[in-house]
Write a structure and sequence with these properties.
single chain; alpha+beta; Arc Repressor Mutant, subunit A; 2 domains; two-stranded antiparallel sheet
Length: 241
């Protein structure tokens, strides 16, 4: 079966990006330029560009064109003892920052109530943050924090990450239970992470416990797999320490 023209074009452009002919921030050929170069229709040229955007290789700006996106992927180590995310990014030479999107009191969803051992619909603090690595949007973090902690630390939480904030105030984590799964971008996530609606994303769900084994917060970090990943090192049973 012959490869569709729009696939052939997008694969050629993908190869040019991979070998560095187009670098992060470079403007890709316009639809009109692709039509002339490959002698194809506007629909075919548009689909070829859409293929690159859906792969996370390019981003389209209305009225400006289509540009190559940064392809550097960062790794967060799920180690024990816990390494704070911003510390891990600094170690890798990655400029980490976040934008506080939401910090408000809400009624806990059923899943959060169950994970935190609180009554259904109890009040908790919800914080939504957009995490950036080297300026590129990499993940959205949603965290539900016990209401008394949210009330105490709200000003700090707007300017620094949650775990360091707790540690600086003498609240240390003893345990972190987590799972990793997949989801798809809804309207808000597609906007924040600059991906198409329905794009596949990774979800790192976690519940953090105090030294008294009390749940302090439950959250989910929803990330672009092309910009963010996790690593884990384990030791086999019976191995020397």
């Amino acid at each position: 079966m012959a490869t569709p023209l729009h696939i052939s074009i997008s694969e050629q452009l993908r190869h040019q990006i991979a070998v560095g002919e187009y670098r992060a921030g470079d403007r890709l050929p316009s639809e009109h330029q692709l039509m002339e170069t490959f002698s194809v229709s506007r629909i075919t040229a548009r689909q070829a560009v859409a293929n690159l955007v859906s792969q996370g290789l390019a981003i389209a700006y209305q009225g400006k064109g289509v540009f190559v996106t940064p392809q550097k992927k960062v790794t967060y180590s799920l180690s024990s003892p816990l390494v704070f995310l911003e510390e891990d990014m600094t170690r890798q030479g990655v400029a980490f920052s976040f934008e506080n999107l939401t910090l408000e009191v809400v009624s806990a969803p059923a899943e959060v109530s169950a994970e935190m051992g609180i009554p259904q619909r109890a009040e908790v603090y919800l914080q939504k943050k957009l995490l950036r690595m080297d300026g590129a949007a990499g993940a959205v973090d949603l965290s539900y924090l016990m209401v008394e902690l949210g009330e105490r630390f709200a000003p700090q939480l707007k300017t620094q990450m949650t775990f360091p904030t707790l540690a600086q105030n003498g609240i240390f984590l003893e345990r972190l239970d987590a799972t990793i799964e997949c989801t798809h971008a809804d309207y808000d996530l597609s906007s924040y992470l600059e991906v198409p609606l329905g794009h596949a994303l990774m979800v790192y769900r976690y519940t953090a416990y105090s030294r008294e084994q009390q749940p302090l917060l439950h959250g989910a970090t929803i990330s672009r797999a092309d910009r963010f990943c996790y690593s884990l090192s384990t030791r086999a049973a019976g191995s020397p320490a």
